[in-house]
Amino acid sequence: MKSRMEAVSAGISRVLKTVFGDTKAALRAGICFTACLLIIVFGDPTWSRLHEIALLLGLLCTAFFTLKRRIAFIVLIVALRIPVYGVSAILSEARESPEAVVPEIHVSVTLGGDLFHTRVSDQQCWQAVVCFYKNRVAVVAAHSCSMSPGLLDEHTFLNEKSLDERLTALEDTPWGLAVSPIDAPEPRDELPIANASDVLLGERAVCITPGEEPFEVTLEGWITLRGRQYLVASATRRGREGMSGSPVVQNGRIVGFLAGTWPLSIRPPHIIYLSPAPLVYSEFRDYLDGQDAPR
Question: Which pTM was predicted?
Answer without folding.
Answer: 0.77
